[in-house]
Amino acid sequence: MKDAYSPKPEHKFTFGLWTVGNSGRDPFGDVTRKGYAPIEAVRMLSKLGAYGVNFHDNDLVPIDATVAQRNKIVKEFKKALNDCGMCVPMATTNLFYDPVFKDGAFTSNDARVRAYAIQKTMNAIDLGVELGATVYVFWGGREGAEVDFGKNPQEAIKWFREAMNFLCAYVKDQKYDLKFALEAKPNEPRGDIYFPTTGAYLGFITTLDYPGMVGVNPEVAHEQMAALNFPHAVAQALEAGKLFHIDLNDQKYSRFDQDLRFGSEMVKAAFFLVKLLEDSGYAGSRHFDAHAYRTEDRNGVKDFAAGCMRTYLILKDKVQKWNADAEIQGLVKEIIVEDPKLQALSKKYSRANAQALKKAKLDRKQLVKHPLRYEKLDQLTMEVLLGVR
Question: Is 59 labeled as catalytic in the residue annotation?
Answer without folding.
Answer: yes
